[in-house]
Fold Dipeptidyl-peptidase.
Amino acid sequence: MRILASSSAWVFAFVSVAAVACGGNEASAPPPQAPAPNTAPPDMGSKPAAVAPASGPALRLADNDEGMWTFDRFPAERVKKLHGWGPSKEWLDQVSQRAVKLAFGCSGSIVSPNGLVMTNHHCVSECVSQLSKKGRDYIAQGYYAKSEAEELKCPDFEIDQLSGVTDVTSRVEEATKGAPESEFHAKQRAVKAVIEKECATSDAVRCDVVTLYNGGQYHLYKYHRFQDVRLVFAPEFAAAFFGGDPDNFNFPRYDFDISYVRLYEGNKPAKTEQHFRYSAAGPKEGEPIFVAGHPYKTERLLTVAQLEYVRDVEIPEKLMRLSELRGALIEFGKRNAESKRIASTELFDIENAIKAYTGRYQSLVDKEFFARKVNEEKRLRAYAAAHPDLEKTVGDAWNAIARAQEQYRDIHLAHGILENAHVSSLFKLARALVRAGDEIPKPNDQRLSEFNDAKLPALKEELFSPAPIYDDLEALELESYLTWMRAALGTDEPAVQRALAKETPAGLAAALVRGTKLKDIKVRKALFEGGKAAIEKSTDPLIQLLRRIDGDARAVRKTYEDTIFGVVRKNGELVAKAHFAAYGQTTYPDATATLRLSFGELKGWEERGKPVPPMTMIGGAFERHTGKEPYALPKRWLDAKSKLTATTPFNFVSTNDIIGGNSGSPMVNKEGEIVGLIFDGNIHSLGGAFGYNAANNRCVSLHSAAILEALDKVYGASRILAEIK
């Protein structure tokens, strides 16, 4: 279920050097073979083609369901060869218009002409939590708007619909041509800001320059932005996450992980002519099924040095930090029922992240899997060495990236803690206000990327969100962060001294929460509109804290960007050229939170020598019900048992290649009908961040028949059913 691209503010967010390759990584490669026939050739730009060798054995993808493909380069002929049918351009265009992106790391689909969007419950759980309050717990009780007037606006929620993609590779490359590694990132950031500003002609337009193929291509993605999003339906958490953490990333499953929200424009439901319809029958065995969504990040082209860093440093430290936070939140929830309610969403996200990182770690410590990655790199480097023109172009790229990885080990703690740790809602607001005062007066192309003009609508939505902020939880989060900062960096670290002075983490955290006025939206607006002068005059203790440590955070960020990020990015482009030359036109770019299409079929797998059937039935949920968490069905479900058909399909698995960010993606058949809703992967899919294993990598979906039956017989959601039918 829990294939969120990013979890809550708690998730320990070191941005590793390995992650720099996000958005530019091709798939894992089998041994060299002839190029795959009938594969749609992506436009790789002029530079890769110029260094491609005239002859030699090109590498290619295996003949399986691997790949998160861009719509403009979808391998329809390959799908037809494997599954007997391939989509037309018209089919692809329609599906791409009906799939939408939830800006905080999920996917969704438009399912009515009036802006109704289907996604996962866990993708809207933050909105549901924010709309809840003491005595009105929509997470536990669920929510259904029986009329348009009852549809509740989510405090800070954005959904984006893709309207166009433009190749801007030549423009980005020209801006960075000849730039030394220390200036590479700054020049690239500047030209991206200019391109995005030219594109974003109003607040209703969002534009992102996206790195594909590790710098082999740069595309401008233009979206229609919807910032008025309202909750229509959410089931009880116990139904959406039935089986809890024990069943998470496992199968069989019995989860009703679905929610509906609506897009509004001008205070009215948006008109959405392009929308999906539902298949009552669901997926058929032997027929192709497709997932249209926004997978957040894969790292399939990471070099061995980068993978070693992720395995040896990044994931172990994340797991340690997340485990500490899980324990703190569990204890916090024991205080009383209200504490349990307000901590539940973050605890859920942390437990999900722990399991996800554990699965990724298991892949990297698997000797066979890692040996495969080592051999892939050896083959590619040998291929480059065998072609003088290519070798001259690529040069020392792999070794340069390895040296950058070693350098990053020296500063990664300071970088992660001071610059990239997500702490609490109030901390995030204070940092954004402090930096906005410094950044916004600068020319657009000289700002930190998160403050450029194209990003300001999203920034303002977060800054002025009416979402509730809870003092006790804020104090816990701030105390945990300050304790971690002191323990990890040391008492004598200047940034620690500036943060704590003579205070204890607990004492300072309590004083910060007690003294800050940032919970008041009017105060935040005054500071934002007053700019740098207002920030400098502010006596708010949180603003003062962020001002004290901002110099340290900026310094380590600059070191990272100038001496590490730029090195990896520039040399990553060279590695990408080697991939283009060796793999020809058969590869797909790594996931970049942009719209992709994967293909597959209904299929189980073998686990510990036993077959895992691909489908569960509604009746199985009642057999699994114990009456105790996490196997306690809500009362609505128990009351509706006699109305439900026990043999109606509930959840199913398929071979589609997905990753975090695909949560909420529609599963569609060749008629373009919804047959399922992605909500999870099995435990083996977590290694899909680094490579696809056709034998056991499976995604998990909610069956369309279960959606229709439960909406009718469990929830009496006749208004939704009439709209989607």
Summary: The two ends are 26 Å apart (CA to CA).
